[in-house]
Automatic annotation (TrEMBL):
<feature type="region of interest" description="Disordered">
    <location>
        <begin position="81"/>
        <end position="108"/>
    </location>
</feature>
<dbReference type="InterPro" id="IPR052035">
    <property type="entry name" value="ZnF_BED_domain_contain"/>
</dbReference>
<feature type="compositionally biased region" description="Polar residues">
    <location>
        <begin position="355"/>
        <end position="374"/>
    </location>
</feature>
<keyword id="KW-0479">Metal-binding</keyword>
<keyword id="KW-0539">Nucleus</keyword>
<dbReference type="InterPro" id="IPR008906">
    <property type="entry name" value="HATC_C_dom"/>
</dbReference>
<dbReference type="InterPro" id="IPR012337">
    <property type="entry name" value="RNaseH-like_sf"/>
</dbReference>
<feature type="domain" description="HAT C-terminal dimerisation">
    <location>
        <begin position="408"/>
        <end position="486"/>
    </location>
</feature>
<protein>
    <recommendedName>
        <fullName>HAT C-terminal dimerisation domain-containing protein</fullName>
    </recommendedName>
</protein>
<keyword id="KW-0862">Zinc</keyword>
<feature type="region of interest" description="Disordered">
    <location>
        <begin position="354"/>
        <end position="374"/>
    </location>
</feature>
<keyword id="KW-0863">Zinc-finger</keyword>
<dbReference type="Pfam" id="PF05699">
    <property type="entry name" value="Dimer_Tnp_hAT"/>
</dbReference>
Length: 524
C-alpha cells in the first residue's frame, strides 16, 4: 500500500504537498502511512512527515465498529481453539465481513439453512450461559429470529404476495421486508425500522401463513412460520435496539458529504454520540442492553482517544468562525483548553514562518526607491523621491519594532462569532476564500486543513461506482474508456445535484414570495 501511494504521489508530483491521509481504522493503514513517511524521508528528504499526526481515522468506520461491538455483544459467545493451542471467545454471529473465504458478497441474502445452523449454535451456547437472565436469553437469539423470518418470506414469491395482502388488510403501506446486508452492521437500523412499521402485517402473517392455502407448506426439515412469532417483550427489545441504532444512523448521515468540510465536526460528534449512548445506560427500560451499550461506548472511546494524535481536528474547529475556541472553553477542561490553544498556535507559527522572508534576503535588499515600494512602478514621477525621504524615519522605526507574529490569530479569536440563521447553509470554504486577504496565514491553514475529510465514505463511493462500471459484461474495457466513463458519471452526478439544488432554491424563493403576498393581502 505504501509503495502504491508513493508511486501515485510521484506520478502527479505531489510528494511535497501531502497533508493528512484519511482511511479506515485498520492497523494495515497505520503501517502503510508509517512506511510512506519513511520512504518520503529516505528518497525525497521530507523529514517533517509525522505519520501519527498525518493519520486521520475515518469517523464513519469508527461508528460502524461501535455498532458492531453493540450488536455482537447481543450474541452469546463460544470457545474456539486458535492454532490448536489457546482458546478464545468469539460471538456466535460473526462480523459481517468475515467468512471462510474472506470475501462476502454484499448482495447475497441470508438463507434458511445458514440461519438454522446459527440458531442451533446459539441454542447450545445459551445452555452454557451461567445463570443468564430471561432478557439475556431473549436477546441471544432475537436478531437471528428476525433474520430467519425475513429470509423465509423473501425466498418464496407466494409468501411475499401473502405478506402484501396482510399489509393491505392491516391498512398500512405495502412495503417489502428489508434484508440484512452482510457487509454493513448499520443495515440493522433499516431492517428493524421496516419491521416496526410493518408490525401489524408481520404478526398477521406469522399467525396465518402456516394454515393459508396461498402460502406453500414449509419443508419438513425447516421451521414453520409460527416458530418466528415475536413476543411483546421481543418487540419491545426491537424498539430499543432500533432507538440505539437510530443515533448511529444520524451520525453516519452527517459524515456522508462529498463537497463540504466535515473534519471539524469529528470531536463534537464523538463526544455527543458517547454522551447519548451513556444516557441510554441510565434508563430503566434499557437495563438489559447496558452491557451491549458499554461495549459500543468503549469502542468509540478507543478511536476518540486516537484522534488526539492528529492536530487536524482541533485546527479545523478553530477555523470555523461559528465556533473558534468557544467549543473548547465550554466542553473541555482547563487543561484541555490549554492543549488545544498550544496546538493551534504551533500550527499557526509553522505557517507564519513559511510566509516570512529569509533573513539573508531581507539584509541583501538594495536601498533606494524600489526597496520601499512607494515609487515602485512609477520611478521618475515628480515628487515621489520627496515623499520617500519624508517617510523614511517611520519605515526605519517600523523595522526596529518587534511585531506580534500571532496578532492575526489573536484578532480572529477576539472577533465575534459568526451567527448563521437556523436552517441556513454556511459555506466555510467561501468564507475563507474571502477572508484569506485579511488573514493570509489563517487562509493558508484553511486551504490545507479544511480539505481533510472526517470520513473515507466519499472516497469509497468512487470505488463502488468503479465496481458498477467494471462488471463482468465489461471485462475487456480498456483503461482509457474506463476513465472516460467514470469521468462522465461523476460530471453527470455533480450536474444533476447542482440543478436539483437550484430548483429547490427557486421553489423556496417562490414560497417566500407567496407568503409575503399573502401577508400583504391580509394587511390590506
Amino acid at each position: 500500500m505504501a509503495q502504491e501511494l508513493y508511486d501515485i504521489c510521484k506520478k502527479y508530483n505531489i510528494v511535497h504537498k501531502l497533508g493528512n491521509l484519511t482511511a479506515d481504522n485498520l492497523t494495515t493503514n497505520d503501517k502503510g502511512i508509517r512506511i510512506l513517511g519513511q520512504k518520503l524521508a529516505v528518497e525525497d528528504g521530507i523529514l517533517d512527515f509525522n505519520h501519527l499526526e498525518r493519520r486521520s481515522h475515518c469517523f464513519s468506520h469508527a461508528v460502524h465498529l461501535a455498532e458492531a461491538a453493540f450488536l455482537q455483544a447481543l450474541s452469546p459467545k463460544k470457545t474456539v481453539k486458535k492454532n490448536g493451542k489457546s482458546n478464545r471467545m468469539v460471538p456466535i454471529v460473526p462480523a459481517p465481513a468475515s467468512s471462510p473465504s474472506g470475501d462476502v458478497d454484499p448482495d447475497e441474502e441470508d438463507t434458511e439453512e445458514e440461519i438454522a445452523g446459527l440458531m442451533v449454535e446459539v441454542a447450545e451456547a445459551v445452555k452454557e450461559l451461567p445463570e443468564a437472565s430471561e432478557e439475556a436469553l431473549l436477546l441471544a437469539e432475537l436478531l437471528l429470529k428476525v433474520r430467519g423470518f425475513i429470509a423465509k418470506v423473501r425466498r418464496s414469491p407466494q409468501a411475499k404476495q401473502f405478506f402484501k395482502k396482510c399489509c393491505r388488510a392491516a391498512t398500512i403501506e405495502v412495503l417489502e421486508l428489508l434484508p440484512y446486508c452482510k457487509t454493513r452492521w448499520g443495515s440493522w437500523f433499516g431492517v428493524l425500522g421496516h419491521l416496526l412499521v410493518l408490525k401489524k402485517a408481520v404478526i398477521a402473517f406469522i399467525n396465518q401463513a402456516d394454515d393459508s392455502d396461498e402460502v406453500p407448506n414449509v419443508e419438513k426439515n425447516q421451521p414453520k412460520y409460527i416458530s418466528y412469532r415475536l413476543s411483546s417483550e421481543e418487540w419491545k427489545f426491537i424498539e430499543l435496539i432500533h432507538e440505539v441504532l437510530k443515533e448511529a444512523s444520524k451520525v453516519q448521515e452527517t459524515f456522508s458529504s462529498e463537497s463540504v468540510p466535515t473534519l471539524w465536526l469529528v470531536l463534537p460528534v464523538y463526544e455527543q454520540f458517547i454522551r447519548v449512548w451513556e444516557s441510554f445506560t441510565q434508563r430503566s427500560d434499557m437495563k438489559p442492553l447496558v452491557p451491549m451499550l458499554n461495549a459500543g461506548i468503549n469502542n468509540l472511546r478507543k478511536y476518540y482517544n486516537l484522534s488526539d494524535r492528529s492536530p487536524a481536528h482541533i485546527v479545523c474547529l478553530y477555523l470555523d468562525p461559528r465556533v473558534k475556541d468557544a467549543y473548547f472553553q465550554s466542553a473541555w477542561t482547563e487543561e484541555g483548553q490549554v492543549e488545544a490553544r498550544v496546538i493551534m498556535e504551533r500550527i499557526f507559527d509553522e505557517y507564519q514562518a513559511h510566509r516570512q522572508p529569509n533573513a539573508s534576503e531581507s539584509s541583501n535588499e538594495a536601498p533606494g526607491p524600489s526597496s520601499s515600494g512607494i515609487s515602485q512602478g512609477v520611478t521618475g514621477s515628480y515628487g515621489f523621491a520627496f515623499i520617500e525621504n519624508a517617510t523614511a524615519n517611520r519605515r526605519q522605526r517600523e523595522k526596529r519594532t518587534i511585531k506580534d507574529l500571532r496578532a492575526e490569530l489573536k484578532k480572529y479569536l477576539e472577533e465575534d462569532l459568526v451567527v448563521v440563521p437556523k436552517g441556513q447553509p454556511f459555506d466555510l470554504l467561501s468564507y475563507w476564500k474571502a477572508e484569506s486577504l485579511r488573514a493570509p496565514v489563517l487562509g493558508d491553514i484553511a486551504r490545507d486543513y479544511l480539505a481533510i475529510q472526517g470520513s473515507s465514505v466519499p472516497c469509497e463511493r468512487v470505488f463502488s461506482s468503479a465496481g458498477l462500471t467494471d462488471d463482468k459484461r465489461r471485462g475487456s474495457i480498456i483503461p482509457q474508456n474506463f476513465e472516460a466513463i467514470q469521468t462522465c458519471k461523476a460530471r453527470y452526478r455533480a450536474e444533476r445535484a447542482r440543478r436539483a439544488a437550484a430548483v429547490a432554491a427557486q421553489r423556496e424563493a417562490q414560497r417566500k414570495r407567496w407568503e409575503e403576498d399573502a401577508i400583504e393581502q391580509v394587511g390590506s
